[in-house]
Structures are given as structure tokens and as C-alpha cells.
Amino acid sequence: MNRWKKKQAATVKPFKRSALAGDSLGGRAGYFVRRAFINIRQNVFVNVVTIATITLALLIVSLFLLVFVNLEGAAENWSERVQVTVYFDKELTAPEQSVLHDKILSLPGASRVSYVSRDEALKRFKSRLRGQETLLEGVRPEVLPTSFEIALKRANRDTLGVENFVAALKLVPGISEVQYGEEWVRRFNSFLNFMRLLGGLLGGFLIIAVVFIVSNTIKLTIYARRDELDVMSLVGATRFFIKAPFLIEGLIQGMAGSIIAITLLYGLYEGFLYNAGSFLTFNPVSSGLEFLPMEYIGGLFLAGAMLGFVGSLTSLKRFINV
Fold this sequence. Notes:
Layout: H1 2-11, H2 25-42, H3 44-79, E1 83-88, H4 94-105, E2 110-116, H5 118-128, E3 146-152, H6 159-169, E4 177-179, H7 182-223, H8 226-234, H9 239-275, H10 294-316
Antiparallel strand pairs: 1-3, 1-4, 2-3
Helix pairs in contact: 2-9, 3-7, 3-9, 3-10, 7-10, 9-10
């Protein structure tokens, strides 16, 4: 009997662990990716709902970004109209123009300085009264002042920047009368600050809402597969082994949602440009309307990937202790 037991023990081969997941980092990563795609194929409807939710959420955010970016561009164009004008009672000689031009341009904040002669001032005056030129019959250039028109750098176009520049400008010898539309500058900058504050508040609210919606949607998808998680835990799978395919699945869902959202946004943008002439009195292309810059597109793609990943990570906490 003992001889038979020894023979049986000698013929039994030791158990070897399956190499399904692979022992190397690359082997495990490949297994987790394959497992994630298998999960997606086995739960098509649930994944479609999740991707659609991420797509809709990112589309709303990207539409807001598109509007905000173009408003910022329009504000930038409007801010170029902020300029300071220095008036003179006499026509300046060429040496006087050169000296004053260099002194003004050397001031911090000055971007461009141009001299406007009396003849040029009268020509501009007539162009503004096009169709009513008879009102200027007998008007001589000598009745109009000469001036320097000064464009400011972008950082100096706010109310404080303009006031500081004007204060420094008045210290330049030979300059006394300076005008810059103080009230218009103040109102314009107040409007810009209000729009930026409103954009920040709306953007923050949208981001919070998007994270909440996507996280709860992913939570529902994982809840529907809670039995699978329980079985894997019972057979001794580690936390990382259980979570990794779900995290990769969330990453794939987020990237797919972001790509679809960006594609839909571009389609809406092109459709708007194509049909804008039928309900707008201006051409949006010539007015500077543009699509999102590449850094924003890249940011949306990364945001979608992070939404899927973080949504899966937070949702798994309910079933797996981190």
C-alpha cells in the first residue's frame, strides 16, 4: 500500500500558475487592454451609453469654449481701438516730429506712434461725412490740429495701464493736451472683466456638472457588473488585477467620447459658417470667427480621457477598497 502511494506521488506533476496575464510588465499591460476590449464587446449598450454621456458633456463644454475663445478674440480686436491722442496747435517740423516720436515710443506701454498732419485730419473728416461733403466747403486744413496717435501694448490697455501711460506722457516736454476717451476705456474694461468673470463661473459650473454626470453614469455601468467583481474577488484576484481593465475601459470610453465631441463640434462650426449668410447680416469668416486652437483641442481630448479614467476609479471604490 505504501509502495502504491509513493508511485502515485511520483507521477503527479506540480501545479504551474497560468501565464495568461504574463509575468512581464508588457505582458500584463497587454492582457489588461485585451480584457478591457472584451468587456466593451460584452457590454456594448452600457458602453455606448457611457460614451454618449461623455460626448454630450464634452460637446457642451467645447461649445462654451468656442464661444468664449471667439469673444476673447473679438475683445482683443476691440481693445486695439484703445489709443491715446496728443494734439498740437501748430504743424510740427520734421525734426520736431522725429524727436517727439522717439520720446513717445520709448515710454513703457507704447506700441505704435503715427503722426497725423492737418491735411490728413481733414481727409479723415471728409471720409466720415461721406455724402455730406458740402458741410465742409470753405473749411481749411489750418483750422484742424495736428496730432500723434499712440497705440498701446495689450498689457497696458486696461484702465490703470492707460492712466499710467497718460501720466508719463504728460511729462514729455512739448506735450500738454492729451485725450484718450477715459470714460469709454473704463466702460470697455469693466465689460471685459465682467465677461471673463461670467465665463469663469459658467465654465466652472459646467465642469462640475460634467464630472458629476459622467462619474454617476460610469458608476451605473460598474454596478451592473458587480457580480463579475464579486466573483473575481472570491477567486483571489488582487485589487489592481480587478481594477486595471475597468480603468483602461474608462480611459477608452473617455477618449472615444472626446474624439466624437470634437468631430461634432467641428461639424457644427462648419455648418454654421455655411448657413450663416441666410440669418446674419455679417460674414462670420471676415469678422474673425475661428475654430478652437490646437491647444484647446488637445486639452479636450485629455479631459475626456481623464473623465473616463477618474470616473471609473471613483466608481470602483464602492466595490473595491483602494
